[in-house]
């Protein structure tokens, strides 16, 4: 089957003017990006590019944290997306300053990494498993592409192209790192982006090479440790120990990627790898990579996905636990991992044309991704648990600051995820008000979207630019959460429609001003988990549309563990202060006297249990919280 020609629209061709998203994106521009710039300057990430190691102590690992360039790169990428849609001379100048620092840190042969330049010269590419060199390179490449596409400037793209030329020499056949690959995937998907931006075929070949080297025998990371003579950056000070199966699963090198069947190990690493596999499957029309992606996807969504779209339940590896092991209090669900899941899901939709991937993308976006930042955009969750004993709150920053700039770049590039275009027309994946401008059949077309989503399931589309009668297919995603049959009307007349792979298909000749209205029934619903998810056994969650709700102590008559939702009770939606709250019939199950275990029945009093969207929790002080709440038997 030839590769389809579905693509995301460029950021500049998508306008977002949406009651839900526009204020949040303005917060990212006006508060989050400046806050992160300050934290990166205070934290030393900018200064580190002057290649003067901190005189912290004798431990090399303390003198220069190894992946600091990635924090700066993700910040540049986020800022570039902002610059793609609006002028901001001060931000433009700050980005130029960061790029000048990177230019100064680049070595004459193109190499660019603080740690191995200033702390461990002569040891480049000797600790691929732990030292994050290619991970940092990947983020720099993504930043270079975003900056070029946003501003037309090649200042950063030129830097990263010189670096990639060097990496090619190192890793290509006959090079010193032949057979090697990164311990934290990232460069692979970045190289595909660089290929798409420049059409330099070698970037695609390098992405494929690194992807296919992974997991092949003999095992590269053991061989490099033998050559190096020490256990590596994260390996401690003892003797070299051969990697166990669990070590190999941690960075998904336990098997060649085409043979992998289950999502295992560190979840951000996994998401970046699977994203690159989907990209390569598309670009190279590679059925083996596509089938591997489809298998891994099925495993993830049927056994390892939180209802919030979070993934990675095991904090000890920042990654996947066993199937159905989805604890709520201790679940990790790193913000970066949910973002990575969006990256992968988006690519899978482009590869397959199936809406089921966007259903998961949307679940992650509105829940486990958005929860990663406070309402004011300056405090962050690294892990996003589904329950709190009252001690959990967002932090101003982290020593390992991967999540905050990842969230900034995701929200600043939301345009990428709303529409996809192909030769037949436009696919609408997300319901976000604004417009899409694209070329179709030799003419410029603009489709304007109006909606009160995610609170209101009625969305309108109008053809606001077209020069001639326009033969075009408009595909509208029909979300899995819809609580009844979606209704579509054109210019006020209800229209029968066909569906394919989760999309309603409207294949017609359109005229300027034609208006389509889609109504998605959006009743609040009680959701129950598979019985094997023991943390949710006997409990329910509340969802309305794409929004998963949670119960916070501050809104309720008792700490959350004492609340019980009535089985099949009434659920009433109230909308205030820009968000839904759902009120459920329930009970306060007051603990009976007699200590931890007792024979007395607890006393139960009727109460109204009030929810907030999960993304909005922990904005009003500490208190108990839960997504899964006990259900009356
Ligand atoms: O190792 C780089 C990033 O830091 C990972 O993606 C995150 O999980 C955090 O460990
Ligand atoms: Zn992170």
From TrEMBL:
GO terms for molecular function: hydrolase activity. The lineage of its organism: Bacteria, Bacillati, Actinomycetota, Actinomycetes, Glycomycetales. Keywords: Hydrolase. The keyword Cell membrane does not apply. SUPFAM superfamilies: Six-hairpin glycosidases. Residues 13-415 form the Non-reducing end beta-L-arabinofuranosidase-like GH127 catalytic domain. It comes from Glycomyces rhizosphaerae. This is Glycoside hydrolase family 127 protein. The keyword Hydrolase applies. Residues 525-630 form the Non-reducing end beta-L-arabinofuranosidase-like GH127 C-terminal domain. It comes from the Bacteria. Residues 426-522 form the Non-reducing end beta-L-arabinofuranosidase-like GH127 middle domain.
């Amino acid at each position: 089957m030839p590769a389809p020609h579905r693509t995301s629209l460029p950021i500049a061709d998508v306008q977002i003017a949406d009651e839900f998203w526009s204020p949040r994106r303005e917060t990212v521009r006006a508060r989050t990006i400046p806050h992160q710039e300050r934290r990166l300057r205070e934290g030393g990430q900018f200064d580190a590019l002057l290649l003067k190691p901190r005189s912290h102590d004798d431990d090399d690992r303390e003198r220069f944290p190894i992946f600091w360039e990635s924090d700066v790169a993700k910040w540049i990428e986020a800022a570039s997306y902002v610059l793609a849609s609006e002028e901001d001379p001060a931000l433009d100048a700050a980005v130029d300053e960061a790029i000048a620092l990177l230019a100064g840190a680049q070595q004459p042969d193109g190499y660019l990494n603080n740690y191995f330049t200033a702390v461990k010269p002569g040891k480049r590419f000797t600790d691929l498993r732990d030292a994050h060199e290619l991970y940092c390179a990947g983020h720099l490449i993504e930043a270079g592409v975003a900056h070029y596409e946003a501003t037309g400037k090649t200042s950063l793209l030129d830097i990263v192209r010189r670096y990639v030329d060097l990496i090619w020499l190192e890793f290509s056949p006959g090079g010193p790192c032949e057979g090697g690959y990164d311990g934290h995937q990232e460069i692979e998907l970045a190289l595909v982006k660089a290929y798409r931006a420049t059409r330099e075929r070698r970037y695609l070949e390098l992405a494929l090479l690194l992807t296919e080297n992974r997991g092949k025998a003999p095992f590269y990371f053991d061989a490099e440790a033998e050559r190096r003579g020490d256990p590596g950056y994260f390996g401690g000070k003892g003797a070299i120990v051969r990697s166990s199966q669990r070590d190999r699963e941690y960075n998904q090198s336990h098997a060649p990627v085409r043979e992998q069947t289950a999502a295992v190990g560190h979840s951000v690493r996994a998401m970046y790898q699977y994203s690159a596999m989907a990209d390569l499957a598309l670009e190279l029309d590679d059925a083996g990579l596509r089938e591997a992606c489809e298998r891994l996807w099925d495993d993830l969504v049927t056994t390892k996905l939180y209802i919030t779209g979070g993934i990675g339940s095991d904090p000890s590896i920042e990654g996947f636990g066993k199937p159905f092991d989805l604890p709520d209090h201790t679940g990790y669900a790193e913000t970066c991992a949910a973002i990575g899941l969006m990256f992968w899901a988006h690519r899978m939709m482009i590869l397959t044309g199936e809406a089921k991937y966007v259903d998961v993308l949307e679940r992650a976006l509105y829940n486990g991704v958005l929860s990663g930042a406070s309402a004011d955009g300056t405090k962050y969750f690294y892990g996003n648990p589904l329950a709190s004993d009252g001690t959990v709150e967002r932090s101003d920053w982290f020593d390992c600051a991967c999540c905050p700039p990842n969230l900034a770049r995701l929200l600043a590039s939301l345009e990428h995820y709303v529409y996809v275009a192909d030769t037949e027309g436009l696919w609408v994946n997300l319901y976000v008000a604004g417009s899409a401008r694209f070329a179709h059949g030799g003419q410029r077309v603009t489709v304007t979207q109006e909606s009160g989503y995610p609170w209101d399931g009625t969305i309108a589309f109008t053809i606001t630019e077209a020069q001639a009668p326009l033969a075009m297919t408009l595909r509208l995603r029909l979300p899995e959460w819809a609580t009844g049959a979606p209704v579509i009307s054109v210019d006020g007349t209800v229209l029968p429609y066909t569906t394919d792979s989760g999309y309603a298909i409207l294949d017609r000749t359109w005229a300027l001003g034609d208006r389509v209205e889609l109504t998605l029934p959006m009743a609040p619903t009680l959701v129950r988990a598979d019985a094997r998810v023991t943390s949710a056994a006997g409990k329910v969650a509340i969802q309305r549309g794409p929004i998963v709700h949670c119960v916070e102590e501050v809104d309720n008559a008792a700490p959350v563990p004492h609340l019980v939702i009535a089985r099949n009770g009434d659920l009433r939606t109230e909308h205030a202060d820009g968000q839904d709250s759902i009120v459920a019939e329930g009970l306060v199950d007051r603990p009976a006297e007699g200590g931890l275990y007792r024979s007395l029945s607890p006393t139960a009093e009727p109460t109204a249990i009030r929810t907030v969207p999960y993304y909005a929790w922990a904005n009003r002080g500490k208190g108990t919280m839960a997504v899964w709440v006990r259900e009356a038997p």
